[in-house]
Amino acid sequence: MKRKLNDDATMDGIMRETPAAIRVVLQHGMLCVGCPIASFHTVSDASREHNLDEDQLRSDLEAAADADGAD
Questions:
Q1: Alpha carbons 52 and 46: distance in angstroms, whole number
Q2: I need a labelling partner for 32 at 20 to 30 A (CA). Which of 3, 16, 38, 45 fits?
Q3: The CA-based dihedral angle spanning residues 61, 62, 68, 71, taken in that order and rounded to the nearest 10 degrees
Q4: Which residue range is the domain that position 21 belongs to?
Q5: What is the number of domains present in the chain?
């Protein structure tokens, strides 16, 4: 079952809850890992700041969450 990211979830929270999301963040060229702003930025904020397609980023993060939950 595909998980849906909460619109209020922060990048830091997503990476803490779903360690597989760290790989997604890095693959998208984002520097959220260890960034002090990650605890404030939502997926929307981060995608806007990094000029990324929000729908694609969200989809990739949700796929990582699904894969992480399959273990």
A1: 8
A2: 3
A3: -160
A4: 11-69
A5: 1
